[in-house]
Amino acid sequence: MSKQAGLPVLGQDDVACCAPMVREPLGEEAAAELSRMFKALSDPIRLRLLSLIASHEGGEACVCDLIGPFDVSQPTISHHLKVLREAGLVGSERRGTWVYYWVLPEALAKLSALLEIPAASAKALA
Question: In terms of residue numbers, what domain contains 85?
């Protein structure tokens, strides 16, 4: 039998193996930040708004383009957009009389990294 060390398996290092929640407990500050984001996304209108903004041509959407798909008033849409902005999920900029919104990629990366649990780890948690 050979005494050579086994070959490393690509993609199996400790850093890439597990989501932060599985590797170690979340700290207080990280948990507070992530919970604000998840709380903002817990409303179906806000989740749809985020999806509409993210999928809009050019990566940003005018508030005027976000009102039509919903059966709620413009002030209600503005409230939901404010919640998304305060949660750090979208950025905004006033251009003339309209406000434009775009998704903040670093916020989505944080959410994604937290939820990215490999199948083997998910089975172990079940």
Answer: 28-123
